[in-house]
Structure prediction request, 979 residues.
Amino acid sequence: MVKKYVYLFHEGSKDQKDLLGGKGANLAEMTNLGLPVPPGFTITTEACNEYTRLGMRLPDGLMDQVRAALATVEQAAGKRFGDATTPLLVSVRSGAKFSMPGMMDTVLNLGLNDTTLKGLIAQTGDERFGYDAYRRFVMMFSDIVLGLERRKFDRIFDEAKQAAGVKEDWQLPAAALKEVVAKFKALVKSETGEDFPDGPMRQLELAIRAVFNSWNNERAYRYREIEKIPHDLGTAVNVQTMVFGNMGADSGTGVAFTRDASTGEKKISGEYLVNAQGEDVVAGIRTPSDVAQLERENPQLYKQFAEICETLERHYRDMMDVEFTFEKGRLYFLQCRVAKRATRAAVKIAVDMANEGLITKQEALGRVPPQRLDDLLHPQLDPRVKTVPIGDVAPDVARVVASKPAVIFVDGNEVRTMSAAEWHALPDRDAVLAGAKFIDIARGLPASPGAASGVAVFDPDTAAARGIGKGNEDIILVREETSPDDIHGMTAARGILTERGGMSSHAALVARGFGKPCVAGCEAISVEEEQKRFTIAGVTVAEGQALTIDGSTGRVLLGVTPTMAPEIFPELDEFLRWADEVARLKVRTNADNPPDAANAVRFGAMGIGLLRAEHMFLQKERLPAVRQMLLAATDAKALEAEADALRKEQEGATGEKRAQLEQRLNDTLGRLEGPMGHYRGAIARILPMLQDDFQQIFRVMDGRPVTIRLMDPPMHEFLPDHDALLEEVTRLRATGADGAELREKEQLLAAVNAMREANPMLGLRGCRLGILFPEISEMQVQAIFRAALKLAAEGKPVHPEIMIPLVGFETELATMRELVDRTARAEMQAAGREVPYLSGTMIELPRAALRAGDIAKQAQFFSFGTNDLTQTTLGVSRDDAEGKFLQKYLEMGILKENPFETIDQDGVGAIMKMAVEAGRATRPDLKLGICGEHGGEPKSVEFCHKIGLDYVSCSPFRVPIARLAAAQAALGEGAERDR
Ligand code: PEP
Ligand code: MG
Prediction:
């Protein structure tokens, strides 16, 4: 038996997208709903796949099934295919499961030839209409099915208009159109060597083949690659009775959304053209009218139209987009599908539909992919912005950047520049924007979302002097890469652009924490920090030149580019509250300062999951004290060790030897006084500053838990850059400048040298630092508890949680835990009151994960530091790898996802799971969280839900994303694809 390849519309349903494609399935559904759909049929995707399998041959029996289906359609339409008196004309459209621009789209009026044309004219009594339909058909068929260049047909048509002295298509009289058709056919003959196919069945077969072929064309193939659509789905073909929107003033055609696709407002939106065929709406030749006008001009028709829209929404329980045509006052629906929508609209529609009772709250939560919420929380590039690569216009751009224009774009063939004020004063700004192409400089990694514009500044001091808080200029800080030395400049900048570094580089982490846009690892620009400039495509961009970065996509544009501001709106608030109701995972934030914490609370954070104490040390005015503390600490500790050794030696010694040792010990203790004094002095100066910060943060968090991690990074991050220092010392030596300055710098250089490590990420950091310099750890714990006790004294709730970083051994944690408990107890005793607190650790080394059962003996909570855990489990440097090889790995498909963005579930995830089980086996009430960058990434959040964590913690701007992802994880449903 031959397979069924052809389905009449009434034989299918909306659930058969695999077989009938999206368009076919929905046409079937509408037909069965009794809506006015012109009769037709769908050739299945299986037929397409079989055609490909057979080496581009139509499967046996397919055309017989087509003929049979056509007979039924003829009956329903009361017309006959190829008939000279009542000809049936059809449209032929491709329709895959997912909508795919880049594939063959539509051929209209198929079935026309010199004979059927007569019938069409007789039926309509309109010769002009007949010839117009005919010329459209020949052109479309030649272009889409025969693959001839449309341009050549356009030229013939334009010449005809010129010859007739008319401007608009519709002004061309029948006789001229007739001539156009003849010329079109002659062109086909000269291009293909064959006559234009006149037989309707032949036309239909060729069109079906063309649709199938288009599934395999280069463009469609590439589109599927990008969109990750499987290549073996195939496309369906829809053959449908033509209805005409171009039969006069009571005919028309349009597209509409059942709600507003950008705001979500419950109101039909869309546009239509009177006396036009479908392609005219899309082609943009005439300006369409708002559907609201249809309501005014033809209330009867509009009423029916609106009722059907309502029916479709109720039936699909979603916002739809539709294509419709009215022919001599009679309405038809030609397509419907679940509508794509802006994120804001997606949230509002989900909430409204749940409130209308159309869908459940749970369904509403499943309707917005969490990642898309990001769009709402940062300024975005205006979606109307179009671009041209700088390489295409480099000479022109090079000429004008010397004057550092604020706004620069290409308009036609001309590069235009103007000041920001001039741009805003443009009376026809929207029209200019529509024609403008902004200059695309390069693309880096989308390291922290949002768009920002400002002038390029290449060093943090200038940025701090000119930027937010001081000069209040909008600055983009451009660096080769950033370091903790740059923090003050980063704070003052609107956005950060780096040449090197990956998604978890310093720039990326800090920018995400600040909620500032960042494009990292933009290797195409060569930054010369000293010269305060970068070059790209031969164009030099110097300090003061305006740039725009889009951290959501990684794009970098020249000049100020239009953006749109974010806002939290009531429906989003309601939506996220629903998410919290169903989520099991709590969502905390990574924040180290009061504004970030306040922002996170606004976004719904239920606590702080990671406060990196070192970020408090890194504020510019604190750095001198911190440096003094660390430099003196090293000296003091060396001398202390020397004194200890002497004491030991002395114990066993007698007589002269003992006296000698005594002398040396006294000498050492004397030398220790200076560094120790500096060390303790610096600590004493830093303590109240930290205490003040903690107090403010506890206040902002208002009783929510606050996890404070004691200082973690390698010491050199707090010290001046080695190479810069060396350069300076060399310069001072060469110029024989002021001796005191040289001596001071030399000392500093010696200290920096002493602390240099080949692999700082694996060196003296984390709890190792805390164990070697217990005074620094004690000071942090003192600051935390003094702050907490202050609030407690005011009757305010506080819940500090002290977290120890980079633990690998139970003994390490035991040592630190003893310090924490001892210090906390002392502070509480001194204050005469208690505050509840927890002490725990990060799990960020494989050994800690492997020995989690032991480690849990010392920890009341674990927080997975998946940045370091990924780095150490994979043996891949989080700072270097992305720029160097990870990107390539992703392109080559060696890795499917960036493990620093999405948890490597098979590797890192596996040991997390082990650690969860072992930890809970030791301590059933062990609290479990994650505070690596993955904590705000939806797939990782889902994974954390699955392995039973209690909370995720992420940067403030990702809190809403994590809340929704946590809800979806609990509901066990991913977001639907076709949105
Ligand atoms: C981590 O390693 O995942 C973490 C949160 O710590 P940091 O990024 O500060 O090393
Ligand atoms: Mg870490």
